[in-house]
Every structure is written in C-alpha cells, then in structure tokens.
Specification:
Elements (H helix, E strand, L loop, with lengths): L11 E5 L22 H13 L4 E5 L9 H11 L3 E6 L6 H7 L5 E5 L4 H8 L3 H14 L2 E7 L7 H10 L4 E6 L11 H13 L6 E3 L22 E4 L4 E3 L7 E3 L5 H12 L4
Parallel strand pairs: 1-2, 1-8, 2-3, 3-4, 4-5, 5-6, 6-7
Antiparallel strand pairs: 8-9, 9-10
The structure holds iron/sulfur cluster.
C-alpha cells in the first residue's frame, strides 16, 4: 500500500472521559483536576476518526462508568461508526442493568486488578471477592482482559493472578510496570528484572500483553512495525487535548477544526510529519 493511501487516523485512540474516580489508588497517574469531555463534541471527534480509518476507541478516565452519558456513548459509537469499543474500569460499578445495556455495544473490557486477595484489597481499598463477581459480570458483556500494575508488592501474586484470569475466562493479561507518580516511585530495577525472568520462563494459560513503552527488551510480537507513533495510537485527555499518550507532556487542544486538525498539529510538534 503506497503511503499516500495510508489512513490518516491512528489505529487506536484512548479517551479519558472524565478525571473523576471513586477509588484512591496510590499509583494512579490520572490527572486530579476536575474535567470531563462534552458528549456531543466527543461523538463528532469519533465520527471524524472513524471516517479517517481509525479502528478502535478505548474509554478510560478516571473511571469511565462515572461519565453520565457512558451507556449512550457506547451505544451511539457502536451503532453509528465502525470503531471497536473498549473501556478500562475498576469494575466495582458494573451491575446487571448496566451490563445488559452495554452488551452488544462494547467489544472488549479491561478490568484493573493489581494483585489478588489481601494485596488487591490493600492497594485498591475494595473487597476482592466482590471484584471476582464483577469479573463474571464483565465476561457476560464482552471478552475481557486483566490490567495488572506490576511493582514489588504485586509481583509475587503474578502466577496466582494468571490462574485466576484463566478461571474467569479472561482473554488477555496486560502487564503495566508501575509508573513514577508524585505519590510513588515506580517499579524498581530488581522487580523489573524479576518480571523479565518471569516472562521468559513461566508457563501461562492466558495471552500476555505489555504496555508499549515498557516493551523494550521483551520478546513481543508486533505485526505492524510500520505503524508507529501517532499512526498507531493517540490519547484524548478529559480536558479535550490530544496527546501521544496519557503520560506525554505535549498536548494540542482539539479546536473547532476537529480532531484531525489537532492530529496534524501534534504530528508537527512531535516531529512525526510523514
Ligand atoms: S481505579 Fe484507576 S483511575 Fe481510579 S484511582 Fe485507581 S488507578 Fe486511578
């Protein structure tokens, strides 16, 4: 395919619907300043991305189920675009009625589960048995994966967490080495080394994935090596700024000319003009 015909949009876009969350995880890197996206504007941006060849949108936050129009948003995007719809959640707000509304309008769910049992409860401040019930509920909506922040506290739980993911029919296990935030120092070198060894030697019954920024030196499979940077992924924060990732300090406000215009500006600033 000549590059002139490549899709303009990134393959996948994540969207922080709101910065609000009812949990207080110490290692959370979501901005704490109040913000949430305007529903009508967001629907327009997603239509623009769909028209420009984007494959999927992942809603997050904060906690995306706290976004007031969350159900309608998933339904509208699923019914009016070709985008795959996913969301990342702590899962404690999922309930039967919400699950029934989301079924058919969501294609994949990512559930955050850092550690199991008492490790999880100490880190997330929520009951682990309650979480397990929510895993079954998530599976009734769509295929789901586990997001697992890896640090010195959660690393010893990895094998048991993989076994649990298998038991609950998770289709993916995403490793997220802990990031440095104002409140915590991020994964230490010893644990990172242990994680590398574990990936190389452990036997697993669930497919493993790793955040792209932490994949260096790991035996990953990347079938789309030409699709890098903003061709592959972009992030919209809850203030309506387009970024290369949720961690990136450079952001371009999405103005009246729409999200593709912001993408062009961000590519220029980031030196990714192609
Ligand atoms: S559940 Fe997620 S968004 Fe909420 S505080 Fe924890 S890490 Fe942050």
């Amino acid at each position: 395919m000549p590059s002139i015909r490549w899709s303009v949009a990134p393959r996948q876009v994540s969207v922080a619907l709101t910065n609000a969350c009812d949990l207080r995880c110490r290692y959370c890197y979501a901005p704490k300043r109040r913000a949430q996206l305007n529903y009508e504007q967001l629907i327009e941006w997603l239509a623009q991305l769909d028209g420009a060849g984007c494959f999927g949108v992942g809603f997050g936050g904060g906690e995306p189920t706290l976004y007031r129009e969350f159900r309608g948003l998933c339904e509208t995007v699923a019914k009016t675009t070709r985008l795959a719809v996913t969301f990342t959640t702590h899962a404690h707000r999922l309930h039967e009625e919400l699950a029934a509304d989301l079924k058919g309008n969501v294609h994949f769910i990512r559930v955050s589960m850092d550690g199991i049992g008492s490790t999880y409860e100490a880190l997330r401040g929520r009951d682990f048995t309650a979480l397990c019930k929510k895993l079954s509920l998530a599976r009734s909506i769509a295929p789901f994966g586990i997001n697992f922040v890896v640090n010195a506290t959660t690393f010893p739980d990895l094998d048991a967490a993989i076994a649990l993911a298998h038991d609950y029919d998770a289709s993916e296990f995403l490793l997220l080495p802990e990031r440095r935030t104002p409140a915590c120092s991020g994964i230490d070198e010893t644990t990172r080394e242990q994680l590398r060894d574990w990936i190389a030697t452990s036997r697993r019954s669930v497919r493993l994935a790793v955040s792209e920024s932490d994949a260096d030196g790991l035996p990953t499979c990347d079938p789309l090596t030409g699709e890098i940077g903003l061709r592959s992924y972009a992030h919209v924060d809850a203030f309506g700024k387009l970024r290369r990732s949720s961690f990136d300090s450079i952001g371009v406000a999405i103005g009246t000319n729409g999200i593709l215009d912001a993408l062009t500006k961000l590519e220029a600033i980031a030196g990714e003009n192609q």
